[in-house]
Amino acid sequence: MKRRWRPAGAALFSGLVLVLASAGAGAKDFNPAAWGAKADGVTKDTQAIQSAIDAAAKAGGGNRVVLAGGTYLSGSVFVKSGVTLYVGKGATLLGSQDIADYPVMPTRIAGIEMRWPAALVNIANEKNAAIEGEGTIDGDGKVFWDSYWTLRKAYEPRGLRWASDYDAQRPRLVQVFRSSHAKVGGGLLLRRAGFWTVHICYSEDVTVEDVTIRNNEGGRGPSTDGIDIDSSKRVLVQRADIAVNDDALCLKAGRDSDGQRVARPTEDVVIRDSVIRDAAAGVTFGSETAGGFRNIEAYNLTVVGNVPVGILFKSAHTRGGFGENLRIHDITMTDIPVVLRVTMNWNPSYSYAQIPADIKDVPPVWKVLATPVPRDKGMAHFHDVKIWNIRATGATTAFEVDAYKEAPLERFSLSRLEIQAKQGGYIHDAKDWRFEDTKLTLGSPVGIEDAAAVKGLPASAVHVRPAPPKADPMKKSFEEQDKT
């Protein structure tokens, strides 16, 4: 019998039950005030919060550490198995601006395994742990944004743009690392992250839901991604409201030689029911593609405001990896300049590391970044991608798509698209693309079969099919059947 893939959410629910079931009748709330927390926004409460977490873990599963009203100034804290860190309404967990308050630990950053400061809140090597509440986790990250720009301005004239992101070490807001059955959400406001906001790495059975992310307050922080899902599986993201200065919802799987060494895909992921208001892109695959992507579904997304690209695939000719069985559907875009962009040669000054000859004492991470990748192993291969029910108005360009002739983008199926744009754009290095029931409005309505509308659509590579007959309302669509 042929196996039919089901969305990741179905598998996730069984894991989520384990998290919730642990909170039994004997669960207790622990108040960090009992360990000396002041919640005055001035005194560092790191140790008090951590002591409460440790006591809750020792007392058994299902206990909560509750931050009530007030501002808890803190460095890194680590949520343990069976514990929920609950940031209550009216409470703020405020990140310290002293990088020394974030202990350096093994992790992965932008596709490379390295030592890096811990996040403000961490679930690391744990299970059945949660970070929830209706309060605020605030990274107060501008000091880290400024340190990054200072370093980058010094690096760029030396040809080291690619190294600046790795050398300017900045704390993430929330990290879930090598953990399982974890949850982040419950109404949290996440703001002003020093680096990425929520990073899920090498983890499984993770839910992020009911979060508001606001990073563009008091400036626009570099690389302040919203939610990054990195070489992890069975992840559900839902009901997120995001305004950031980089990728909003991003799938990652390792960079270049180091990512290929690790070879862990991101798979069985559902992203749904979310709003992107400010970001580099609405939903992004890459640029760290080395481990590959498999069985990803993103749907019911609204992309509005200051977002230059709605759907983005990005990689480089040293990344490697793949993308297969990717489903993106039911997305509404308003005034988003580019509806779909696919680039396999993204940001060369960042993507390709070359160490200048005058540098003799080369840091280990630079050597990793500069490790050559043979071209045949460096090409990312995206295939079997379905995109449907996309509604876009006010766009500048419908498609900006290019890859490499030796690694074409294969078997992309696009159906029921309605795009109003100034220009059609281009599609290059495509093989067996299929358009069905798709309309571009470029000043006046045209069909996708109009080759003048979109450049680079050779007949041998792209198949156009007419709109199907009206469906029988009593019969489920293929997509609906596949979700059951």
Key features?
single chain; 484 residues; alpha/beta; Pectate Lyase C-like; 30-stranded mixed β-sheet; two-stranded antiparallel ribbon; 9 helices; 32 strands; 15% helix; globular; disordered C terminus; signal; Glycoside hydrolase family 28 protein; glycosidase; polygalacturonase activity
What is this structure's SSE topology?
Elements lengths: L7 H14 L7 E2 L9 E5 L1 H13 L4 E5 L2 E5 L2 E2 L4 E5 L3 E5 L8 E6 L2 E6 L3 E4 L2 E6 L3 E3 L3 H14 L5 H7 L6 E4 L2 E12 L6 E4 L2 E11 L12 E4 L2 E11 L3 E6 L3 H7 L3 E13 L2 E5 L7 E14 L2 E6 L7 E13 L3 E6 L4 H4 L12 H6 L5 H4 L2 E22 L6 E19 L2 E2 L1 E4 L2 E3 L3 E3 L14 E4 L12 H6 L1
Parallel strand pairs: 1-3, 2-4, 3-6, 4-7, 5-10, 6-11, 7-12, 10-13, 11-14, 12-14, 13-15, 14-16, 15-17, 16-18, 17-19, 18-20, 19-21, 20-22, 21-23, 22-24, 23-25, 24-26, 25-26, 26-27, 27-28, 27-29, 27-30, 29-32
Antiparallel strand pairs: 8-9, 30-31
Helix pairs in contact: 3-4
